[in-house]
Amino acid sequence: xxxxxxxxxxxxxxxxxxxxxxxxxxxxxxxxxxxxxxxxxxxxxxxxxxxxxxxxxxxxxxxxxxxxxxxxxxxxxxxxxxxxxxxxxxxxxxxxxxxxxxxxxxxxxxxxxxxxxxxxxxxxxxxxxxxxxxxxxxxxxxxxxxxxxxxxxxxxxxxxxxxxxxxxxxxxxxxxxxxxxxxxxxxxxxxxxxxxxxxxxxxxxxxxxxxxxxxxxxxxxxxxxxxxxxxxxxxxxxxxxxxxxxxxxxxxxxxxxxxxxxxxxxxxxxxxxxxxxxxxxxxxxxxxxxxxxxxxxxxxxxxxxxxxxxxxxxxxxxxxxxxxxxxxxxxxxxxxxxxxxxxxxxxxxxxxxxxxxxxxxxxxxxxxxxxxxxxxxxxxxxxxxxxxxxxxxxxxxxxxxxxxxxxxxxxxxxxxxxxxxxxxxxxxxxxxxxxxxxxxxxxxxxxxxxxxxxxxxxxxxxxxxxxxxxxxxxxxxxxxxxxxxxxxxxxxxxxxxxxxxxxxxxxxxxxxxxxxxxxxxxxxxxxxxxxxxxxxxxxxxxxxxxxxxxxxxxxxxxxxxxxxxxxxxxxxxxxxxxxxxxxxxxxxxxxxxxxxxxxxxxxxxxxxxxxxxxxxxxxxxxxxxxxxxxxxxxxxxxxxxxxxxxxxxxxxxxxxxxxxxxxxxxxxxxxxxxxxxxx
Length: 679
Description:
The chain is built from 23 helices and seven strands.
């Protein structure tokens, strides 16, 4: 960027661990203009009149120009700060950006946005100076319009740069998060030799594996653990043996990783040649890219031994393999021990995969330790360390103690005796949930016969068994028997204390039976009337076939019990004559002479008073309904059907009114705080 200062060392270190997924999206030019102008409209005043003082009018339009310039500056600065600087990031990321997006094009796009930001600032400064000398509302408005128009024109000219940066951002957000300074295993080789399969076996990554070349088109990252440390495994695309300028973008990603990452290089050779490339071609590629392995640990692994064994190779192919093995003996390889044999594996059967991973990790750890010891700081650290060597205090031998049980177990195992484990016992005796492990057989007691004795329960330092009475059940039964006898004796004494009533004679018993019968009938009749919802004394014919339930029989029955039946008979006869009636003479007499109706007018019943005047139903048959009950039932159904419309505030089935949810007068215009509910 023009005029940018170099960042400090801490900022450079943070850039090496850059997270490209945090880069904000870059809007298109048209959207960019709409966002800035709408924000200016919303955040600045919108009302100005020609009658205002000229200083106020100038300030009004100057504020709009300044605010628009600030919005452009903030958004362009955010874009320029989010995108990484090619010169400040790690060399791996720098070359990767150059391979994927063309470093010159990338720098040019960012430089154009930086120039646009400076031009917008210059335009705003010039037009604010002109607005200070505006002599009318119209001239100030035209200056503001010209300033905003020139800013938008500049951004329209950079629409291609904005679109390019948005595509770069989308691609960078999909790049894996690679830490160039952590412990890494870099897997490389020809296409389709088993690099992705190896990564899927040693990590939890799920890289696509297909039987054709260049299935992996970019660098994939997986993580694994070794010796309580986190390791980074990089799966690179396949490389072909051709000049550097002829390699495509996919191959150049692998070359970039090999050139800049401090990792152990795992070069995989397909011994079966199923990848489509012979061993001679794979050896030629190895020697072609061997300069990239300088100062890095190197492991050459033979893959697909399940298809072709190492012993089945011809003399020429074996010589080529030995040539790659000789390259590993250099000082950069830093082999552990004297074992120079190439590791072999099969990613299909997983045979030898873990051994290859462990060998790579051990090589890289040894390499990193050697580098630290070779640095200048190692001497300072070693000077602060003191290794203490213990000196024997006497000549007495103190051999290691081995328990006798362990020696017996080793002897049984050496003799070929198979030790039955608890797992096997569980499977033999019903499996989990059925088998109960015997924990007492491992008890270490003075006498083995004590293992299955009942363990005493100790409470407050005393054995509970010492305080248990063996005859407790017999004593408890005796105590319950005594309680039953006392209860029976108390019940007999209570009966003796209560006064005895004299027995009833025959007439009293008959009268008591009639009273009880009459009471049961009244209760049953009341329940029937209550269940029917009608208090009228209607007796169905199926209940009274012989017509015995009449006023004559009722009068004789009540008089036989010594009751006056005149009022009851009169009330029953008056109800049978008319439906609407005045008060009966017996009721008027019982309620007093003041309540009598001297004019002979009919009084309204309580049932008629309880009805609503608006919904009163005539007690007559008509209107297409055969009875009063049907009329009441129809009215009830109509009221129930109207409830849903009442809840929706509709007057009837034909009401199609839709009230305005957002009234124009309440939701239009520019409203500030506290003005949302009214204009």
